[in-house]
Amino acid sequence: METLTVMNQEIGCNCDIYDDDTVASNMSPSASTNSSSTSALSPLQTAELVQFQFYSLVVAGIPVACSGIVGNILSILVLWGLSKKSSTFYIMYALTVSDIAYITISFLRQMIYIYAYLGALKDYYHTWTLVEPFLFGTKKLLQTLCVWLVVLLTLDRFILICKPTHAKSMCTSQRARIQVVILATIALLLNIPKFFEREVYYKPGSSLPHARFSHLPNNILYFYAYTVSVYIPVTCFVPLVALLGFNIKFVMTLTKAQRRRENMTSVRDSSRNSNTRGVTVMLVVVVAVFMLCETPMAVTTTMLSFITGSNTSPELKLAQMKLAAFANLMLAVNSSINFYIYLLVGSFFRKALKRRLCRKTPKRHIVVNSACVYTVSKTMETSYGDKGTPVTLTRITLSDEV
Fold it and tell me: From the CB of residue 386, how many other CB atoms can be counted at a distance below 10 Å?
């Protein structure tokens, strides 16, 4: 408690360090203006909040971030080769790269809570504040890009499964590259204002930098014209609704296909159909986990934008800030978990990863089309003809195992 008191005396008690990325950014102007007088946290509540953020964003968040960075690097090793020949795997590759960048910034920000709770890494905190306005906007940019890359991935798979006649012309690796560039450009344009929502300031008589939210989020025109009308729908509600619809359609399609296979017991399922179904099931799991992890942030954003008011009690404000910290932890989980979903659900991914890590495995050619992945293995055999003449035979085997 003594350490926390010292920290509060230096950094202040008005959300300088223990605020969350989401709190002031999405808070209504009336709430932000009056928060210091009507909903300021007491020293005891501040201590409770700092402790909660330390355990959720440092004790739990840093291991999640580290495992996510390692997992996504391994995903890149597998998806890099596949991305050149398939639109689905190219989008997965782009999503993995975006996830790594997002997790890295989250990891760097989570470290400042060590200073808030323990008083350590003071120099790191003040160094962070110098670049935080830029990294805050970059984090929001990557968050938006990751959301819409998942939507693009499901749309790509929807065309492959439900509109196969259009898949050959629409679901190509070249088109996927163009789509990813367009999404990245739109995400950048959408988040340009976010780079101006944080600012660096110096307290009177101090040469140490601090970061805080600027006056821009408190502008009523900015709040309703940008935050409420554009940013929240585009980054929260529209993608979640779209993903829910796509996932329902995928589940219905997989169920119908399973019933057809059960009715055709005499027909053996082909490798192509089995692999296509496997990739689709993997995507269904990815989208379901994504929606589960994104929902707390959508709830938090709604609360801070529409429920928070000038008469907000300190207890409600404390609950909102705890929820915001938990929502950011779930975003980190979402960007870290895809590798483990691929590993658990995707048999082709496990075998491709094994081939990457185990150099002794005989080399096989990976063949990728827009719907599935399979391999061609070639073996050479020597036999002898009737007159003892050696004859070399080549055997080519097609398999759905990558």
Answer: 5
